[in-house]
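Usage

Read records sequentially. Each one opens with the input sequence:
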Amino acid sequence: ISLNAIPSETAMDLLMFGLPQGVTPMAGLRLNFAAMTPVLVPAMMSSGPEGFLARKAFEQFGIIGPDAMDVTIACGVDSKESHMAGRVTNMLKHWGMLMPEKGLSDSDLKVIPQDATAFSIRRMQLAKLPEFINSMVDKVMPPGEMPKGPDGKVMQPMEMAVQMTRPVIGIDIVTEFFDYLGETMVMYRSNGTGGGGLFSLTGLIELSNPDGMKKTLSILASRLNSGLAMMSDGHVQLVSWSDEDKLDMLTVTFPELPVPVQVTFGVAGNQMIIGMTPETVRVAASQLESRSSILNNRSFTDARGRGANNVFEMSYLDAASRLAEGYGFAAGLMTAI
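and closes with the structure output:
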C-alpha cells in the first residue's frame, strides 16, 4: 500500500520479518507509521487546538512523525509447526523508559503452575509508570498550560492525581503503591486455581516492597470500606484478613447477594496475587514454594523449544487441553446446521 506516492513493485526482503531459518513465509504485513504521517496530520490539524494536542501525543507514542515505529508481522510454516514473528523498530525511542535491562528468566516462569492451560507474562518497569506519564504529558501540553500549586510551581499530572485521591483512599498512589511494584506481571489459568476456566484466572505482580504493599492494602480496606458499605447499603465490603498460613489478603465480599466471585488480593513472598476467590489466591501462593512449575510441562517446553535471548513478553495457550470443553457445543451446532 502506497500513501501519497505512485505504487511500485519491489523485491520483498523476507529477512525483515524475523522468521527463523528454514521457515517458509506464508503471509507478511508491514505497518510503516512514518509513511502515514502526511495523511493523518492534516486530518488532526483540521479539528483545531485539540488536533494539535492529538498530533503531539501521537508523535510521543511513535504513531506519526519521522521517528515513528515500523512494525512487521509474518507467519510461516516448517515441516512440524507454524510460526509467527514480528519486529518493532524505534520502540525504545518512545517506550524505553518502561523497558527493563533484563528479559524473562526461568525464575520468572516458576510462579506459573505446571497445570496452567494458558498464561501471559511480561517484564516492564512498573514503578516508572508515574514518571512516564509525567514525561508524556509534559511533552504534549503547550508551555504554561499546566496548573500551578500554592507555591507557584507547575504541578505534574501524577502530583495532581495524588492530591485528588489521597483524601479518599488514604495513600499516596506514587510512593505507597507504584514505588512498591517490581518488573514482572503474570496472568494465567490453571486447573488447580479453579478448573482452568474463567474463574481460575490468576494475576501476579512482582513487588519490590511486599511489606509496604501489605500496609497499603490494609489502609485501602479501612478507608474505603465504610464508603462502600454506605453506598451499597452494606452489600459490598472490603475485608482485610489472614489465613492459618499467615497469608495476608484483602477480599471484596457481597453480603446477602448471590455474587459468585470474591475478588481477592494477597501478598506472598515478593508477589501480589489477584484471584477471583480467596482459594485461588491461596493455591497461587502455594505455587511460589512448589518444586514443579510450567517448566515441567512437556507441552510448554516443546512449544518453547530453545527459546530466545532477552525476551520481554511471552504467551502460551494449550489448545489441546481446551478442546474437550468445546466438543459438546460444537456437536450441537453441527447437528443444528
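Summary fields computed downstream for this record:
- DSSP finds ten helices and eleven strands in the chain.
- The chain has a mean pLDDT of 88.
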